[in-house]
């Protein structure tokens, strides 16, 4: 049990639609990172939020956006869904950029299927 | 060249044997190194972290790091069928990029009775 919870567990959307995924961070953690894991691949970094600001972004287009709220929970929004967006979306929280060597613990993930 | 590359699998070992998983990375400023285990349909679970050159042991798992060679490995002693999973190597640079880990593609390990 990592203390990071994600919702929903599974989601099916149609190409062109928009989706919002949610993540509740572990108590005391102010940084949230999002990853996309396509089938048969390792997770890929999407972006990180620290104290409600985006703090680092991977190689993902602008239709991938996020938010972090004052309680440090976070949302990942994807607009204009494409078939290749089908993946497991993972969220991890951490104590903050000062804890440079603390490992990331992931939530259970959201499985998104785009048809 | 991939940033983090793992030995190609799948890897199959008999129960009780040592499984050896290898990973190389390209970014010399990397500071933190992790091994995750992922069962089919589940999210990755951290099993080892290592930050300094040398060996780190935790139960049946030993992580080895050689920063000069940009190489990190995971040994699993007395392998059990329950160790059958995909093993992911992850590398971090720390600092303001703290939350960003770069993962390898994973190595599928099967331990057969």
Explained architecture:
The complex is a heterodimer of chains A (115) and B (113). Chain A has no helices and 11 strands. With 115 residues, chain A is mainly β. In chain A, a hairpin with a 5-residue loop joins strand 7 and strand 8. The model of chain A has no long low-confidence stretch (mean pLDDT 91). Chain B has 113 residues and is an all-beta fold. Helices cover 0% and strands 54% of the residues of chain B. Chain B contains no helices and 11 strands. Chain B has strands spanning 4-6, 11-14, 19-25, 32-38, 45-50, 54-58, 61-66, 71-76, 85-92, 101-103, 107-112. In chain B, strands 2, 4, 5, 9, 10 and 11 form a 6-stranded mixed β-sheet that branches. In chain B, strands 1-3-8-7-6 form a 5-stranded antiparallel β-sheet, with no helix packed on it. Chain B is globular. Chain B starts with a strand and ends with a strand. The mean pLDDT of chain B is 92. The A-B interface holds A 31-33, 40-45, 48, 50, 55-56, 58, 88, 90, 92, 94, 96-97, 99-101, 103-109 and B 4, 31-32, 34, 42-46, 49, 51, 88, 90, 94-106.
Task: Describe the protein's topology.
The complex is a heterodimer of chains A (115) and B (113).
Chain A lengths: L4 E3 L2 E4 L5 E6 L6 E7 L6 E7 L2 E5 L6 E5 L5 E5 L8 E8 L10 E2 L3 E5 L1
Parallel strand pairs in A: 2-11
Antiparallel strand pairs in A: 1-3, 3-8, 4-5, 4-9, 5-6, 7-8, 9-10, 9-11
Chain B lengths: L3 E3 L4 E4 L4 E7 L6 E7 L6 E6 L3 E5 L2 E6 L4 E6 L8 E8 L8 E3 L3 E6 L1
Parallel strand pairs in B: 2-11
Antiparallel strand pairs in B: 1-3, 3-8, 4-5, 4-9, 6-7, 7-8, 9-10, 9-11
